[in-house]
Amino acid sequence: MRDVLRRLAISHKWPDDAGLFRSPSSQPYGSIDATQRRILDYITSQPGVHLRQICRELGLAMGDVQYHVHRLERDGLVTSVRRGLYRFFYPAALFGERQKDILGMLSLDTPRELLMSIVEAPGQGQDELARAISVTQPTVSWHLRRLVDLGIVERQQSGRSVTYRVAGTKAAEIASFVRSYHPTVWETWSSRLADIFISYSGGEGEETRR
To answer: 24-94 maps to which CATH number?
Structure first.
């Protein structure tokens, strides 16, 4: 079963918002220094990373990272998107806006756990999700608003009951991104969600052609 999941994740292509498939940029690095190369390599291996993660993982000061990512963005090697309190960084010309939003949320612990919990059991309410990921209900409510605003999660209301599920076929993209860029998380969740991810893959090809 894990081999099937691995093939699903590897074969996933990244459509842009017009439904066209992109490939990684072939732009040469040019004359960038060793620190910029380290940062660029890290952003390429962890798309959607934010500044504090770069500082922590590479052991660099915040001011140094800010200077170098500004240079990389100016030179067209990386792009960034601000979402709330965070600015997320991506290798240039590789992901569409929809993929950037998903990657950005997956780089944050609480939104990532919330997404995985919703994929595992669609139709949960805020109290159930708070228990599932061991955070407070106000914390869940705040993150859910962001996920709904980004179009990653759908809010469904029936009378007084409000539940949440992953929008459209984004669960397949979430599976692929987790496997590619968050392997430790993938190991934790893949066996629990194998049937769910495979079921989403059935309609994936038709959806990405629209």
So the answer is: 1.10.10.10
